[in-house]
Design the sequence.
């Protein structure tokens, strides 16, 4: 202990034993330091100052909200299931996993101007929309090969994919928030019910109050899709730049809920509502082993899945699935779960209009 | 590099061994345990959260994939941070080759800023101390800062730091010693000035 006698404040600050005493004190530490200070009272002030320094000087760190961490971790666990045991199939980093996974949100893929444009050839495109915007806009273009983070005035985060651009005002209107996109971007919109958030991406308009979603509006793809994991968004198409803007608060469009997606086949301009490829658990069940079923009626199993994945599972009302099921479905995807259950009770399922329809004779 | 003699958290080692054996809940617990540390460390090399998160994901998925081939006795935290650091460096190299690379994407070296919570410090004298110490910490060269950060703010021992920074444990000690000396000499300078000023007041 005696070597501490000549220590200065900053030497104590970077002394392991001293820091441990301040930050994670044990009874022995207390005894050791208190008795040393009792013998060397002239050191009390130096020690007090050094304590203050240890307590209040830190590296500046960025906050990692619990929700964000949870999502990131579930992505890792999800990714693990996709990795074949042989070790092949590693995904390249240039396609960040979140882009595919982004069931976390919703994806709007842009209806192209090819087929939505009116016969006279008036296209609704990014440049046109931006030039007609009522307020001055700032444009960000991502020419790199990596996603680019953009933070808006209202606290919303946008992750702009390569070869994409976005325009937005420095300050949003009092009644709505409007941005213009060409390409692909992930949106994490801060909630503000008094100011709906609109994304104009060519002919497709996406309206949200507060959620996160991914929009793609590249011109060279066959399909356009909108996916939702949480929250709810409205998607609608339009034919020219003027019409929707004025009544945008009244626009209805197609509503999509968590785990649903809108797919627009560009050649036919047909919008189909379906489920995303790998539906995510939306509401974490309260019990840890909620998917480990032990003698649970199949009907109840369906209800558990319905709640967890926020999807509708419809069974013909004349049919009952009352037989008990014992199975641990914890580590399976929604479809794998359904496959197993249906196999067990001799039923089939179909996905129609974003809902799961169970067909079969039932069981007792 | 030798990593023998590392005393590491027993619980972590048990988790590590369980996950290498294919235990999924151990894998998840390990991620839960180390995610924050890896995230904060990763942000010292790139400011893009999504990129850092993707890299952490890759580190864990690679571990899960290669779990049968990995050493059961390495200190897990050091291995995780070392893998993340390598991954970010590799991405940085690749980024260099991209014609229109965003120069702000990656820092060329470890970047950190130390700061003090001034509103929690009551005495004026302590506030001055704090601003001097943070000022000096922020002036340290990047590698010394990295060693100081890992040693004193993440409580890793010099063997773990050596593993992470891919240098010899003795070099870690040297980096810490140099940082220490720098702080001390500057401190004496500040004290001298301090005394000089207070002498003028009388």
Sequence:
């Amino acid at each position: 202990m005696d070597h501490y006698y000549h220590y200065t404040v900053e030497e104590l600050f970077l002394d392991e034993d001293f820091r441990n005493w301040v930050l994670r004190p044990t009874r022995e530490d207390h005894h050791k330091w208190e008795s040393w200070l009792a013998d060397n009272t002239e050191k009390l002030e130096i020690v007090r100052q050094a304590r203050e320094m240890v307590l209040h000087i830190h590296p500046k760190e960025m906050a990692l909200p619990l929700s964000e961490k949870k999502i990131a971790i579930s992505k890792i666990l999800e990714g693990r299931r996709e990795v074949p045991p042989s070790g092949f199939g590693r995904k390249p980093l240039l396609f960040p996993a979140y882009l595919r996974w982004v069931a976390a949100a919703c994806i709007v893929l842009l209806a192209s101007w090819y087929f939505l444009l009116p016969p006279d050839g008036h296209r609704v495109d990014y440049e046109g929309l931006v030039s007609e915007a009522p307020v001055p806009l700032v444009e960000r273009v991502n020419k790199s090969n990596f996603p680019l983070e953009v933070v808006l005035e209202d606290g919303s985060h946008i992750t702009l994919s390569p070869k994409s651009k976005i325009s937005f005002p420095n300050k949003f209107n009092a009644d709505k928030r409007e941005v213009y996109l060409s390409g692909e971007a992930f949106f994490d919109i801060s909630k503000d019910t008094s100011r709906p958030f609109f994304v104009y991406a060519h002919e497709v308009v996406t309206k949200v109050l507060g959620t996160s979603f991914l929009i793609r509006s590249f011109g060279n793809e066959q399909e356009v899709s909108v996916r939702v994991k949480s929250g709810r968004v409205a998607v609608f198409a339009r034919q020219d730049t003027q019409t929707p803007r004025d009544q945008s608060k009244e626009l209805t469009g197609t509503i999509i809920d968590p785990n649903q997606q809108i797919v627009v086949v560009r050649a036919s301009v047909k919008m189909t509502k379906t489920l995303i490829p790998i539906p995510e658990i939306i509401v974490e069940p309260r019990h840890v082993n909620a998917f480990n079923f032990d003698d649970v009626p199949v009907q109840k199993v369906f209800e558990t899945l319905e709640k967890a994945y926020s999807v509708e599972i419809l069974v013909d009302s004349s049919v009952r699935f009352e037989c008990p099921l014992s199975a641990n479905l914890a580590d399976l995807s929604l479809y794998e779960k359904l496959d197993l259950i249906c196999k067990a009770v001799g039923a089939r399922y179909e996905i129609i209009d974003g809902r799961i329809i169970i067909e079969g004779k039932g069981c007792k | 590099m030798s990593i023998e003699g590392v005393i590491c958290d027993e619980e972590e080692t048990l988790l590590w061994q369980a996950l290498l054996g294919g235990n999924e809940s151990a894998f998840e617990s390990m991620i839960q345990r180390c995610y924050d540390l890896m995230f904060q460390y990763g942000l010292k090399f790139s400011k893009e959260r999504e990129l850092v998160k993707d890299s952490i994901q890759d580190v864990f998925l690679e571990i899960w994939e290669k779990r049968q081939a990995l050493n059961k006795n390495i200190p897990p935290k050091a291995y995780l941070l070392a893998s993340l650091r390598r991954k970010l460096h590799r991405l940085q190299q690749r980024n260099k080759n991209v014609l229109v690379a965003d120069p702000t994407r990656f820092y060329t070296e470890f970047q950190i800023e130390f700061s003090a919570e001034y509103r929690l410090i009551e005495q004026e004298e302590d506030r001055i101390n704090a601003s001097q110490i943070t000022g000096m910490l922020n002036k340290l060269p990047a590698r010394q800062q990295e060693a100081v950060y890992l040693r004193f703010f993440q409580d890793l021992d010099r063997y773990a730091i050596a593993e992470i920074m891919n240098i010899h444990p003795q070099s870690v000690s040297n980096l810490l010693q140099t940082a220490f000396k720098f702080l001390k000499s500057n401190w004496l300078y500040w004290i001298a000035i301090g005394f000089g000023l207070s002498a003028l007041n009388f």
Summary: Chain A touches chain B at residues 8-11, 13-14, 16, 19, 49, 52-53, 55-62, 64, 69, 72-73, 75-77, 79-80, 83, 87, 90, 93, 96-98, 142-149, 159, 331 (CB under 8 Å). The first strand of chain A starts at residue 57 and ends at 59. Residues 98-275 of chain A form a domain with the Jelly Rolls fold (CATH 2.60.120.1440).
